[in-house]
Amino acid sequence: MPRVTEQHRAARRDQILAAAVRCVAREGFHKTTMADVIREADLSAGAVYLYFRGKDDIIRALAERSIGRVAHVLVAMQEQQPVVRPEDALQAALEELLSTAGEAADDLLRVGVQAWGEALRDEAVHATVSTQLRRLRHTMADLVRRAQAEGLVSKQADAESAAALLCGAIPGFILQRLVLGDLTPASYVDGLRGLVSPAGR
Amino acid sequence: MPRVTEQHRAARRDQILAAAVRCVAREGFHKTTMADVIREADLSAGAVYLYFRGKDDIIRALAERSIGRVAHVLVAMQEQQPVVRPEDALQAALEELLSTAGEAADDLLRVGVQAWGEALRDEAVHATVSTQLRRLRHTMADLVRRAQAEGLVSKQADAESAAALLCGAIPGFILQRLVLGDLTPASYVDGLRGLVSPAGR
Amino acid sequence: MPRVTEQHRAARRDQILAAAVRCVAREGFHKTTMADVIREADLSAGAVYLYFRGKDDIIRALAERSIGRVAHVLVAMQEQQPVVRPEDALQAALEELLSTAGEAADDLLRVGVQAWGEALRDEAVHATVSTQLRRLRHTMADLVRRAQAEGLVSKQADAESAAALLCGAIPGFILQRLVLGDLTPASYVDGLRGLVSPAGR
Amino acid sequence: MPRVTEQHRAARRDQILAAAVRCVAREGFHKTTMADVIREADLSAGAVYLYFRGKDDIIRALAERSIGRVAHVLVAMQEQQPVVRPEDALQAALEELLSTAGEAADDLLRVGVQAWGEALRDEAVHATVSTQLRRLRHTMADLVRRAQAEGLVSKQADAESAAALLCGAIPGFILQRLVLGDLTPASYVDGLRGLVSPAGR
DNA sequence: TATGAATGAGCATTCATTCAT
DNA sequence: GATGAATGAATGCTCATTCAT
Predict the structure, then answer these.
(1) Whole-angstrom Cα distance, residue D28 to residue B171?
(2) Which of A185, B112, B121, D55 is deepest in the core (most CB within 10 A)?
């Protein structure tokens, strides 16, 4: 019976979070009401509180889900065999980010932007975001060092700084993509490649 | 008397917005109450409504003020004579961003992050943010083209893509700076320089 | 099977009421939730509803149990042979009240105080409390009359009024004991004896 | 302007408390909703919260008002010149208690019974009740000692114990009066006088 | 009998905005 | 222009009770 119950529990939490993602993508954390989530999840008020402590708890879970996805994508990438140029890794990560299955990819990105804002005022969300950001940077730095070992990147480059820049390019891509809607991973990373290629030709 | 009245009006609006910046930096747009702003501005409830239509009006003004600052900094930079490498322009812009006088620079950056989130749900804020983002990218593209003309950047690079990447690096800097607190403009842009320098040395 | 079933039923009811007494002593009738009682009784929600119609039913049973105890103590006392002075009967009753076995005596007294309040708003609880109060007074009046017959109390005294006063002294003892915690039956009844003894000595 | 504002404030608080007394007398502390009080006070929800921190704050103020009245009555009595027999003082106090002007006397007594119950679970109400109870007992003990000095009460009586008993008679009077409705101060105190008068006549 | 997930009406409280002074 | 008491719809959350298993 624990099996069924645990599965049930996880499924219900997911049902609620998926509904909340859609609401928050539309209205942001604070304009989304519990009534919105309850209606979207097609549950009763009491049921939602059986699976989450309250609205804050849902917000934190959403922050984790949205911010975690980015780091997750890169970690999965880094674990695959061939060493690649960091630019290529960035491009692959951005492409992966836009193709989330099951859930509308855009919705999760929108929730992520909300999470950035919330990290500045809620200690728990801040903890989630800073942890994931650090993990992202750490993974990226490893990637850069492996590229340096293969001669794909100059040995003089500081891997940590390069990782910070590469990670830093991600929010800017998401933002421009969501606000202006005119960027593809390829064109964006080509901008980096253009700057990288030697001048004077 | 229009002179005095107009000055008075502008001063009052600024007093209210400065107060609102401090509140929003602390609690975000939606957890900041009008009562918070009114108290922080040391005014009466009625007074605030003489200068702003309502809370949304204040939010829009804050979005403009915070997002506008970034573009403003770069435009001012581009208007100065010598042509510089885009990386140097980016570094100078980030440094300028951290040294806002009068208002705590961090507070305005925090309000900016809130504005990104709000742009996804409020049409008016979206208009402000997208306009400023486009202006930023346009200015940056000009800068890149001038650098190409001087041989500082490869002629094969696509100026628009490079501008998108360079602009995209800014939100990531702000976010890492506010959340992790461990980045300087110099180290961040060095990350870009490291990737740019030819490998194999 | 009726035997076993009936015993089982009584045992379950008692298990639930005992749990409810502990909860209500802590939090009062209305801040005690059914969930509290269910947890304290170590049963399931459904089980409790097999033995009680609902929360009101439990409240009424608790009122009966707590208020009934006082009258029960005095009735038991009156049935014993020797005729005593009413003051001595009061003292013995108060002592008996503080020494309830099995259940913490204080808990039941606390529930009693809750029942006084509930009697003012719930007709069923009012019926219980007024019945028990009347029974208490009736028993006490009998006691006074028997003491008068033995010359222990002035024949001119009105037995009904004396009974009302003696019964009326009980809530005040309970209240001062629970709130101030500094009264013993002996010292309290000595207060009465002091007033009774002729002045001028 | 402070004068007007302060008076206004006190008047509004009183308006709300008077409404709350009527509600609580009917339904008890916890079955009285804020909506009940708001409706009875003929105010808006927001207005009530301008004068009280919340429901708990109102409950505490009601406890103070109801319990304080009893002690207040006795203190006022003790300050008058002639020394009286404690029984007479008790009777006068009970009579005063039943004749509160402006507010229905019964309503305030009912709120008092609620306050006894609340004192057992809310620390703030407990503090109010225990303070007032102590003040009541202190005043009564003074009264007894003055009666002893005048030879109205035996010198051998312990004033503190007698005071405890006399104070203890008050809740019992209130309770029997509210629940059974058949007691007058005179008949009740006559019960005490009957016990006091020497037997054997 | 027994379970415990689900229900949904009801509650205390907040807050953007107004308007009589 | 300036004030701040007043408004009341809206919000997050609770809890007595039911019922499919």
Answers:
(1) 57
(2) B112
User: Closest partner residue to A195 among B114, B162, B172, by Cβ?
Assistant: B162
CATH classification for the domain delimited by D55-196, as one of 3.40.50.1000, 3.90.1170.50, 1.10.357.10, 1.10.10.10: 1.10.357.10
* Closest by CA position to A173, among listed A73, A78, A59: A73
Give the confidence band of C39 by pLDDT, cuts at 50, 70, 90.
very high
Cα D32 → chain centroid: 20
pTM of the predicted model as reported, rounded to 2 decimal places:
0.93
User: At a CB cut-off of 8 Å and minimum separation 6, what does D42 contact?
Assistant: D19
Asked whether the beta carbons of D96 and D149 are under 8 A apart, the reply is: no
User: Is pLDDT at B29 greater than 90 in this prediction?
Assistant: yes
> Is the Cβ of A153 closer than 8 Å to some Cβ of chain B?
yes
CA–CA gap between residue B179 and residue C49 (Å, rounded):
52
Q: Which residue is nearest to nucleotide F14 (CA to C1')?
A: A46
- Please count the other Cβ atoms lying within 10 Å of the Cβ belonging to residue A4: 8
> Among A146, A174, A177, A178, which Cα is nearest to A159's?
A146
- Look at residue C201 and tell me whether its pLDDT is greater than 80: no
CA distance A130 to chain B (A): 6
The segments of chain A whose pLDDT lies below 70 read: 1-4, 81, 101-102, 197-201
- Mind telling me how many Å the CA of A126 is from chain B's nearest CA? 7
